[in-house]
């Protein structure tokens, strides 16, 4: 089994207690890593596998897209030491915004203990 690293920017919604944000799971692979994405839509959605459209091990550049029933997510950015940062567009807002996801343990990513601001 390939080593898996989890990156997230999730927090707990104050009113509902639901997790909010994004979780990206990356498993090393050749020639491309296996990547999945989870996002909040009320509660966290189950991870979906994405299509990696660009990956450079040396620079850390990473781009992917994930098609869901509502449209597509698009990410372009850089995989750094313990950080995944870049721009993410989602099918709900139709806009692109900066995201910074930090390496976390699985439980901390999907069941965060810090409240959203």
User: Count of DSSP helices?
Assistant: 1
The level-1 CATH class? Mainly Beta
| Structural class designation | mainly beta
N-to-C order of helices and strands: EEEEEEEEEEEEH
* CATH architecture level-2 label: Beta Barrel
Largest sheet: 10 strands, antiparallel
Task: Work out the count of structural domains.
Answer: 1
Number of strands: 12
Summarize the structure.
Helix content is 4%, strand content 55%. The protein contains one helix and twelve strands, in the order ββββββββββββα. Strand 2 and strand 3 form a beta hairpin.
What would you say this structure looks like, in words?
This protein is mainly beta. It has a single domain (4-110), classed as Lipocalin (Beta Barrel). 4% of the residues lie in helices and 55% in strands. It is built from 1 helix and 12 strands, in the order E-E-E-E-E-E-E-E-E-E-E-E-H. The protein has one helix at 106-110, and strands at residues 4-8, 11-12, 19-20, 22-27, 34-41, 43-44, 48-49, 51-55, 61-68, 71-79, 83-89, 96-103. Strands 1, 4, 5, 6, 7, 8, 9, 10, 11 and 12 form a 10-stranded antiparallel β-sheet that branches. Strands 2-3 form a two-stranded antiparallel sheet. A hairpin with a 6-residue loop joins strand 11 (83-89) and strand 12 (96-103). The longest helix is centred in the last third of the chain and has 5 residues, at 106-110. The radius of gyration is 14 Å and the shape is globular. It starts with a strand and ends in a 7-residue tail after the last helix.
């Amino acid at each position: 089994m390939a080593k898996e690293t989890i990156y997230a920017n999730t927090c707990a919604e104050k009113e509902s207690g639901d997790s909010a944000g994004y979780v990206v799971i990356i498993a090393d692979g050749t020639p491309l890593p296996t990547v999945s994405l989870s996002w909040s839509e009320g509660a966290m959605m189950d991870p979906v596998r994405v299509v990696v459209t660009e990956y450079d091990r040396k620079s850390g550049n990473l781009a992917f897209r994930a098609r869901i029933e509502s449209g597509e997510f698009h990410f372009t950015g850089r995989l750094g030491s313990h950080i995944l940062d870049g721009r993410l567009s989602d099918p709900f807002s139709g806009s692109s915004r900066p995201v910074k996801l930090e390496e976390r343990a699985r439980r901390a990513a999907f069941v965060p203990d810090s409240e959203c601001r």
